Each structure stands twice: as C-alpha cells, then as structure tokens.
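Schema walk-through. Below, the input block comes first and the output block second. Nothing else is stored per chain. Lengths vary across the set, and this one has 183 residues.
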Amino acid sequence: MKRKKRCAWCENDPLYEKYHDEEWGTPCYDDDKLFEMLVLESFQAGLSWRIILNKRKNFRKAFHNFNIKKIARYGSSDVQRLLNDAGIVRNRLKILAAINNAQKFLEVQKEHGSFSKYIWQFAPKRSPKRRSLKDLPAKTAESDALAKDLKEKGFKFLGSTVCYAHMQATGMVNDHMKGCFKF
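--- output ---
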C-alpha cells in the first residue's frame, strides 16, 4: 500500500502525522478551537511542539477543556493548581498569560462579534507555495502585524513567531509543502 505524501516535518512520527492530517493548516473559524490553539502555541514558545502535543490531553483537563469564560475567572488557587500539575508545562508566566489572554479574548469577541472575525483579517491574501522546509519563514509581515495588534490589546506571550505558528496551525496560511496531499 502506498503511503500518503506529507510535509517532511511530520513524516515517520505517528503523533505528528495525525496532527498534520487532521488539523494543521486546515482553516479554523471556531472561536473555542482558535483559543485552544492560541494557548497551546503560547505554551510552546521556546519548546518543541512535540512536547505540547504529548501533553495536550493534560492541558485540556487542566484548563477545563479550554473553556474561555472559566479560564478568564481563574484566581490564585487555579494558578497554584496549574503550577502543581506535572501533566502540563509549569511556567508561571505562561499560566498567567493564558488567564490574561482568556480575558482579552472575551473582549475581542465582544468588540468584533467573534475572535475569528478579528484574527482572520490578518491572514495573507494568498499563501506562497512552499517547496521545502527551508522555505518556511519563522514570521511574516502579517504575523508581525497580528502580534503588534494583540500586544496593543493586552495579550501576552504572543510574539510574531508564535503568531505565525498559530496562523499555520489554524490554516490562516497554507504552508503545506508541494507534493503533500494537503497542498
């Protein structure tokens, strides 16, 4: 049986292949899913995505299935609970950022009707055709603009590189390689 041709970054790793095939680069307009990916991407900063994917189930449990309204109301006991949870990345600044970002996310929803309407305005008009991994940038003018706007709105831990990873993950930009079945 012939194997599917995928982007080189995920081949021969079942966890990455599943993520690639079912999620990565698929346009997402669901606010709950966009929030989950925003939190996970912010926790990934400085770490490998494999670490986050391996802990994703634990993150969902620890963060009440990424219930934005609940997280926005987290207090000091929740912060301590999360810091004691070995199943997630235990970084106080990232935990505090997740709570802050939930609050800011709700403000953006109120202002724009949905977070999706807001964030998709930063998507490039056309995605460049990537031939190999060396063609993938760490950030773009669009991710720079998104990061700047999020910072002005009070979001934390969402620099341009993290924003670009979020844009890739949620399909705002199509960075599947030429030859990949999702290209």
